[in-house]
Amino acid sequence: MTTPGQHKEGEQFMWLGLWLAVFGLGVGIMIGLNIPLVLPQAYAKYMSVAALAALDSVFGGIRAAMENHFNNDIFVTGFFSNALLAAGLAFIGERLGIDLYLAAVVAFGVRLFQNLAIIRRHLLKK
Amino acid sequence: MNKSIYISIILVAVILGLMMAFQFRTTSGVDRGVPYGREQELAVEKRQLEKDMNQLREEVDDLSAKLEKAGKGHSEASEAFKSELSKVKLYAGLTPVEGPGVEIILDNLPETSRPGGSTSFYTIKDDDLLKVINELRGAGAEAIAVNDQRIIATTEIRQAGNHINVNLTKISAPYKITAIGNAVTLQSSLEIKGGLVEFLSDLGIMVKVQAKDKILIPAFTGGLRFDYARPAQRG
């Protein structure tokens, strides 16, 4: 579907994006560790699920980039909506007395490993 | 176009990093603080204890009300005991009493007007006093005293030489016997034709009976000792 030149160009973009992502992650972690703000422990559960969802979205994005159908809008909206949905699910589960966040953990966890497996295959195929 | 992709990638990565860093910090803070589950457990326990406390408070109120009631009952009972005691004391002659009754004065005739013979023959004897008191009792006297010596259950009246002992106290003529009761009945029982007054007058004793509206009879003042008598077990 894609010409070799385009592919090569896309790969270049992809690697740049990956490095940028790693750089951004490092900056975010540095900021997060250094600002004197502590979340209440009651929110830790929601935060953890949201982080997992966000992680899944990021790996999904990397996988999409590997498969050359990366779409910025889908990536960004997916990132936020997944995180918010996961946190909301955990919150509702808490109110209903069901450990609904487990569903989010399982679903995102499975997808995370799937994405990782696909990324691994793409990297090994090269 | 590409720039916006990189910017969004960086933004997303920064947010993800922030979230992870926060998560690290909160979860590592767990060890230092109280775990969330434990906190909730304690909150539930606290709520339970507060409920218990409220219940116990209500119980305290209830019990103190009951105690108050019981105290009232107790004071009522002690009131009843007191009135019973004063009644018993009244019956036993341990309280001064007053009321209508008769006053009887017995005196020896002057020695000159005695009808001769031995002077001791015409003096008042314990027998005479006992007769009067017996008559008064028979007529329904409720309290009797001889020269202000209250006659009670253990009172003796006996001749001791020239005196008469009443309640171990020496008394001598003139004898004043006071009795509380129906004054008319008492007086008429003494002054009846062929009665005690006539009999005593025949013995050469001056007798004067006088009904009075108000007579004061003092309480028994001696000591009461019961060394042998014990209340018998009933039932």
Write a concise keyword list for the protein shown above:
heterodimer, A: 126 residues, mainly alpha, globular, disordered N terminus, B: 235 residues, alpha+beta, Alpha-Beta Plaits, 2 domains, five-stranded antiparallel β-sheet, 5 helices
What does this structure look like?
The complex is a heterodimer of chains A (126) and B (235). With 126 residues, chain A is mostly helical. Chain A contains 4 helices and no strands. Chain A folds into 2 domains: 36 residues; 88 residues. Chain B folds into 2 domains: 59 residues; 121 residues, Alpha-Beta Plaits (2-Layer Sandwich), CATH 3.30.70.1880. In chain B, the strands form 2 sheets. Chain B has a 5-stranded antiparallel sheet with strand order 3-2-7-1-8, with helices on one face. Chain B is built from 5 helices and 8 strands; from the N terminus they run H-H-E-H-E-E-E-E-E-E-H-H-E. Chain B is α+β, with helices and mostly antiparallel strands. At the A-B interface, helix 1, helix 2 and helix 3 of A face helix 1 of B.
What is the secondary structure topology, with strand pairs?
The complex is a heterodimer of chains A (126) and B (235).
Chain A: H1 4-34, H2 44-66, H3 72-96, H4 101-125
Helix pairs in contact in A: 2-3, 2-4, 3-4
Chain B: H1 2-32, H2 36-92, E1 97-108, H3 126-138, E2 143-146, E3 149-150, E4 157-160, E5 163-166, E6 169-171, E7 175-180, H4 183-191, H5 196-202, E8 205-217
Antiparallel strand pairs in B: 1-7, 1-8, 2-3, 2-7, 4-5, 5-6
> Using DSSP, what is the number of strands of chain A?
0
Tally of DSSP helical segments of chain A: 4
Low-confidence stretches of chain B: none
Mean pLDDT of chain B: 85
Question: Which homologous superfamily in CATH is the superfamily of the largest domain in chain B?
Answer: Protein of unknown function DUF881
**Biggest sheet record of chain A:** none
Please identify the structural class of chain B as seen in this structure.
alpha+beta
